[in-house]
């Protein structure tokens, strides 16, 4: 059995005919190029004008906010003047007394030492914990500040219970704190010992300050030009 | 762009018409020889961008009614293609039209097959167009166009014979319920040179239709003759109604008006008054149906032309839309710029007024909100911060009325609503500080555990209990203060053990210890 019974040479396979629109693409070439050019120019125009328009609207909104702020400041200028008159002097005093800003632990320690010396109190001991934020139990307008607190454990011996409250009063003259708990117990002192402490007190105090609140991360607005 | 070239092809000539702005013009005729074709090419060469529609009115047009199994989709199309090829092997210009289905049996499709059986009458013209690369939109037949005409005229007779006079002769087309079934073209002049009798020709056609059983015996054939109004009298004499035949005459002018024919005065208008082809050409130009006869690759320049037109149209539409969009954006940009400038001017004006008012004030150290906040916090701390002094003072006042009671220990603390860690606990983890511990925003409840002893006479427990009760009552008189006995001097509950001494050995004073729990709520 011969592989090619006809005995003829196998003709080469005919090539695949291209679609007519490829062969005669030149007839629509100009139209296609026109479409591409129109597409490019039109979309570029739309894109650029859209960007420009958005940028202009963002600038307009920014100007609107600035205008509203300026108007609000001007509208409330009487209130502001009154607030400055009412609060500024007091604020400066509080700033000096250490309510606002960084903790002044050195001044606290100094105040404790001075009160102990002036009241002639028996030796006392204290321990101040690291500063932490105070948890607000309800919403409160604190401006740009947040409340910070440092807890202090205090142990002191007393000749009389009023020594404790006088000691607190002395501290309050120079700083700001609140007492959290206090335990006063009578010490067993042998009769006839003059000048010996009769009471022992263990107290917990919280030193309060107002510190600058960390600012929220600023949203950087991208602009086309600086 | 909406102009068309309409070519009316008969056996001996080709007439070129132009459809422009809804009007038919032209009518140049070219003979079916080499010279005529060359002249035609010269004539049309300058208008390569205008698509061409060929309307053929040839005697060599065959119609066959066949039944084909009802097959859908691609298989159905292939079946029909094979059937057409089998029927008309020698011509490429074939057409089929499914006209309905049988009512019984296999419910085969009833198909009308037709073809231009003499392709050499068409091909020279088509090839000339192809050579010039002129877009050929379609090849149409006057017979198949008459279907459109019947629909346009609203002729709904069940057996209708439409008779029209064209350059090639009288065309008689038979319609059954609006579907074309048969057509024949007879010369307008017989062999003797006399005009043919339409009545006789109609009778011949009816006889043929009856013989091939297309028209049943007893059915009435309604012949509608479209002819010029002036010749209606002569035709009326030829056409007499019979038991199975009725004649109706429609004037060519009114039919041309319904078909939308508009021409300028001249030869074409004269032709339109005599013959039906200008009317059929107008109908073709206005309806532009799909090509009646398949053209295959001959139609490619039309498809390319349509693609080109669509591309230009899309480009133009898109450019206009985008230009409008861009214009709106630019207008809004301009508006926003103007608004921004106005708002900035207003802001500057308010800032200047503010500065003028504030000029008399000392410089501000911080914002008023900050000042107010700091002063408020300080006030709350000063007035509301908890302190053991108040509760200790109450206890001290009550003790003055009870000298027999001797204090041992005081445990004071702030009671937070959510509880708090016990004092002195320090497990390395700092307990959170609540703002209530600083009196912010209000006073917090406080509690005081008082441990004391009563210096009772000998074993006088009753006296000790009474002293404690008096002391507790004195404390409880204070508003907002609740007193609870934590541990009495003598536990008299039945559930616990009670031990004590009585008699001479108990002569020494008894120190009866007790504790009270005081809670103060704001």
Major β-sheet annotation of chain B? 5 strands, mixed
> Low-confidence spans of chain A: pLDDT under 50, at least 5 residues?
1-11, 220-226
The helix content of chain B, as a percent range, equals 25-40%
The tally of beta strands of chain B, per DSSP, is 18
Rounded to an integer in angstroms, the radius of gyration calculated over CA atoms of chain A is 42 Å
**Global structural class of chain B:** alpha+beta
The end-to-end span of chain B amounts to 93 Å
SSE series of chain A: HHHHEEEHEE
Helix content of chain A: 40-55%
Largest sheet of chain A: 5 strands, antiparallel
User: What is the distance, rounded to the nearest whole angstrom, between the alpha carbons of the first and last residues of chain A?
Assistant: 87 Å
Number of helices of chain A: 5
Decide which structural class fits the backbone of chain A: alpha+beta
| Residue share in β-strands of chain B | 25-35%
Oligomer: heterodimer
Largest interface, C-beta closer than 8 angstroms, per-chain residues? A-B, 89 and 87 residues
CA radius of gyration of chain B: 58 Å
Mean pLDDT of chain A comes to 84
Instruction: Tell me the fraction of residues in β-strands of chain A, as a range.
Output: 15-25%
Overall description:
The complex is a heterodimer of chains A (226) and B (522). In chain A, 46% of the residues lie in helices and 21% in strands. Chain A has 226 residues and is an alpha+beta fold. In chain A, strands 1, 2, 3, 4 and 5 form a five-stranded antiparallel beta sheet that branches. The longest helix of chain A is centred in the N-terminal third of the chain and has 50 residues, at 26-75. Chain A is elongated. Mean pLDDT of chain A is 84; it is low at 1-11 and 220-226. Chain B has 13 helices and 18 strands. Chain B is α+β, with helices and mostly antiparallel strands. Classes of the chains: A alpha+beta (226), B alpha+beta (522). Chains A and B meet through helix 2, helix 3, strand 2, strand 3 and helix 5 of A and helix 10, helix 11, strand 14 and strand 15 of B. Strand 2 of chain A pairs parallel with strand 15 of chain B, so a sheet runs across the interface.
């Amino acid at each position: 059995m011969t592989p090619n019974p006809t005995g003829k040479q196998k003709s080469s396979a005919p090539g695949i005919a291209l679609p007519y629109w490829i062969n005669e693409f030149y007839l629509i070439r100009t139209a296609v190029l026109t479409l591409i050019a129109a597409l490019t120019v039109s979309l570029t125009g739309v894109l650029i004008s859209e960007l420009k328009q958005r940028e202009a609207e963002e600038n307009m909104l920014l100007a609107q906010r600035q205008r509203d702020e300026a108007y609000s400041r001007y509208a409330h200028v009487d209130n502001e003047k009154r607030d400055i008159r009412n609060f500024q002097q007091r604020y400066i005093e509080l700033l000096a007394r250490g309510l606002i800003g960084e903790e002044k632990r050195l001044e606290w320690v100094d105040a404790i030492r001075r009160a102990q010396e002036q009241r002639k109190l028996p030796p006392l001991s204290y321990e101040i914990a690291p500063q932490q934020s105070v948890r607000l139990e309800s919403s409160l307008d604190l401006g740009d500040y947040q409340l910070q607190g440092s807890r202090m454990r205090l142990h002191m011996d007393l000749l009389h219970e009023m020594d404790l409250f006088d000691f607190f009063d002395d501290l309050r003259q120079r700083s700001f704190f609140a007492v959290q708990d206090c335990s006063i117990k009578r010490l067993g002192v042998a009769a006839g010992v003059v000048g010996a402490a009769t009471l022992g007190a263990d107290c917990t105090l919280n030193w309060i300050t107002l510190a600058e609140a960390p600012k929220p991360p600023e949203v950087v607005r991208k602009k086309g030009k600086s | 762009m909406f102009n068309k070239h309409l070519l009316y092809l008969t056996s001996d000539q080709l007439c070129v018409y132009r459809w422009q702005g809804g009007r038919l013009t032209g009518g140049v005729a070219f003979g079916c020889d080499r010279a005529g074709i060359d002249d035609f090419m010269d004539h049309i060469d300058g208008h390569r961008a205008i698509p061409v529609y060929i309307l053929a009115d040839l005697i060599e047009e065959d119609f066959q009614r066949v039944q084909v199994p009802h097959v859908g989709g691609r298989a159905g199309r292939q079946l029909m293609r094979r059937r057409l090829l089998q029927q008309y092997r020698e011509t490429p210009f074939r057409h089929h039209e499914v006209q309905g289905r049988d009512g019984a049996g296999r419910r085969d499709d009833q198909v009308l097959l037709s073809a231009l059986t003499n392709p050499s009458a068409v091909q020279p013209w088509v090839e000339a167009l192809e050579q010039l690369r002129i877009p050929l939109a379609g090849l149409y037949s006057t017979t198949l166009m008459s279907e459109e005409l019947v629909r346009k005229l609203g002729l709904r007779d069940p057996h209708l014979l439409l008779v029209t006079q064209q350059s090639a002769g009288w065309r008689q087309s038979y319609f059954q319920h609006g579907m074309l079934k048969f057509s024949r073209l007879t010369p307008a002049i017989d062999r003797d040179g006399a005009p043919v009798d339409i009545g006789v020709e109609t009778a011949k056609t009816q006889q043929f239709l009856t013989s091939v059983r297309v028209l049943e015996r007893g059915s009435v054939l309604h012949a509608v003759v479209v002819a010029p109004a002036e010749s209606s009298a002569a035709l009326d004499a030829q056409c007499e109604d019979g038991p199975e035949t009725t004649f109706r005459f429609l004037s060519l002018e009114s039919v041309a008006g319904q078909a939308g024919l508009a021409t300028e005065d001249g030869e074409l208008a004269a032709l339109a008054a005599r013959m039906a082809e200008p009317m059929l050409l107008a109908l073709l130009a206005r309806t532009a149906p799909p090509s009646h006869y398949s053209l295959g690759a001959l139609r490619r320049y039309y498809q390319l032309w349509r693609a080109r037109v669509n591309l230009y149209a899309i480009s133009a539409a898109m450019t206009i839309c985008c230009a409008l969009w861009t214009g709106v954006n630019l207008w809004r940009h301009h508006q926003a710029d103007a608004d921004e400038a106005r708002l900035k001017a207003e802001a500057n004006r308010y800032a200047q007024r503010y500065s003028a008012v504030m000029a008399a004030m000392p410089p501000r150290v911080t914002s008023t909100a900050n000042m107010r906040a700091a002063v408020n916090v300080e006030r709350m701390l000063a007035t509301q911060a908890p302190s053991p002094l108040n509760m200790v003072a109450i206890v001290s006042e009550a003790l003055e009325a009870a000298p027999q009671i001797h204090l041992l220990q005081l445990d004071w603390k702030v009671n937070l609503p959510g509880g708090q860690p016990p004092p002195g606990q320090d497990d390395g983890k700092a307990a959170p500080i609540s703002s209530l511990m600083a009196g912010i925003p209000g006073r917090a409840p406080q509690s005081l555990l008082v441990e004391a002893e009563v210096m009772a006479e000998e074993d006088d427990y009753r006296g000790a209990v009474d002293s404690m009760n008096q002391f507790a009552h004195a404390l409880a008189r204070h508003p907002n203060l609740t007193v609870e006995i934590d541990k009495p001097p003598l536990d008299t509950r039945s559930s616990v053990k009670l031990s004590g001494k009585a008699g001479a050995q108990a002569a020494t004073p008894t120190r009866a210890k007790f504790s009270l729990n005081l809670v103060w709520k704001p």
